[in-house]
Design goal:
This protein is an alpha/beta fold. The chain has one domain. The chain has eight helices and six strands. Strands 2-1-3-4 form a four-stranded parallel beta sheet, with helices on both faces. A two-stranded antiparallel sheet has the order 5-6. The relative contact order is 0.15.
């Protein structure tokens, strides 16, 4: 069956699944796709499959936190009217925002704009600690509590690369890292704008399974949050 969701996905260049996570940009997709491929090479099964996909809100100004919010709103509306013959949703769309000032603000704005969007159910903020949720728990409180020792600490997809790879990238690209902040075991790097594509290229071309451990942990957590099979994902 080809419906409204598939038609839009084809125009956007998305490879969608039954459950889809809209991320800020194409670099996020590249990192997570490669992590899934590395898992398939090592464990015989990808993490991204017909049940679960990540798609980019857009390129450049079409992406970012505003792009995630726009796309999630649109795709939820399309999916709601594009149901199967029994009236069930054929596709689900949620959003994942970087854990920086823009992401934190966008999460608040989206949930206020549409009360049907619930934090950490429909729209997620990437945090250093992504805890398991007990049944019936307030997910926002659970995430906040788990990250209390860290506080409002910026966290982005690049921070999930292994420390070994990030240190090597710094050595090979002097000046690429503008600042580095550490809270406990977590280290956040601010990169020059031109450095991020270089790090993505390094990850896609040379990352090992160990380098992708943080990415795989995120994908496993997102699958768990969304009620999908996730126990098969190893490190």
């Amino acid at each position: 069956m080809t419906g409204l969701v598939e038609q839009f996905a084809a125009q956007a260049g998305w490879a969608i699944a039954r459950t889809n996570v809209v991320v800020e940009g194409t670099s996020d997709v590249a990192f997570l796709n490669r992590a899934s491929e590395l898992h398939a090479e090592a464990r015989g099964r990808p993490v991204l499959d017909s049940d679960f996909a990540v798609v980019a809100a857009g390129r450049g100004d079409d992406g970012g936190v505003e792009g995630v919010n726009r796309r999630v709103q649109l795709m939820r509306q399309l999916a709601d009217v594009d149901r199967d013959a029994a009236g069930a949703l054929r596709h689900r769309f949620v959003g994942l925002l970087d854990g920086d000032a823009a992401g934190r603000s966008a999460l608040v704005v989206a949930c206020k704009f549409d009360r049907r969007i619930e934090a950490y159910v429909d729209l997620f903020l990437l945090r250093p600690v992504m805890p398991a949720f007990a049944p019936g728990a307030d997910r926002s409180i659970a995430v906040t509590t788990a990250n209390l020792p860290i506080g409002q600490f910026d966290w982005e997809i690049e921070d999930l690369c292994s420390e070994e790879m990030l240190s090597r990238f710094e050595r090979e690209n002097p000046g690429a890292v503008v600042s580095k902040i550490q809270r406990g075991e977590f280290v956040h790097r601010e990169f020059q704008r031109a450095a991020k594509p270089k790090l993505r290229e390094m990850f896609v071309s040379s990352a090992t399974l160990a380098d992708a451990k943080g990415m795989l942990a995120l994908l496993k957590t997102m699958r768990a949050y969304l009620g999908l099979e996730h126990e098969f994902i190893g490190s």
